Amino acid sequence: KITHIVSSSGRIKVGVFELFEFLESEGMDIYLATGDNPCSVYPLAKRLGIQENFVFPQVDPEGKRKIISDLKKSYEQVIMVGDDINDKGAFEEADVSFLILENETKRKNVLKNIVNYTITEPLEIKNILKRFKI
């Protein structure tokens, strides 16, 4: 079973609903770990259909790494999806990682050497996972 942690900047990116439908149809659990405030995170998670007990608001970078580490004890494989330098530790801990690049910055260049995949749109995750037996 594969678990996804999806970090969000508070807005839902194009293609996320379709991606989540695919992940759920494949029997995958989806977690949300973010540094954002619970007042914004829980409504976002509800809109995305993420179970409340799979939501972790106000998580710092080390907390994200720990969440991935803990999930690896329960799941065969854990995939991390993130978009910034604060996800570095979680990327390093995950079995497979996706960096979503919306814009190029120097601080994100270091992440390109850590992650398995660099993408620009969430739906690219679906296309990549479909190539593998998941």
Describe this structure in words.
By secondary structure, the protein is of the alpha/beta class. Helices cover 40% and strands 19% of the residues. It contains six helices and six strands, in the order E-H-E-H-E-H-E-H-E-H-E-H. The chain has helices spanning 16-25, 38-48, 61-72, 88-93, 106-112, 123-130; strands at residues 2-6, 29-33, 55-56, 77-82, 96-100, 117-119. The chain has a six-stranded parallel beta sheet, sandwiched between helices. The longest helix is centred in the middle third of the chain and has 12 residues, at 61-72. The termini are close together. The model has no long low-confidence stretch (mean pLDDT 86).
The order of strands across the largest sheet is: 3-2-1-4-5-6
The major beta sheet can be summarized as: 6 strands, parallel
β content, as a range?
A: 15-25%
Tally of strands: 6
Query: Which regions contain 5 or more consecutive residues with pLDDT less than 50?
Result: none
- Structural class category: alpha/beta
Shape type: globular
N-end to C-end Cα span:
8 Å
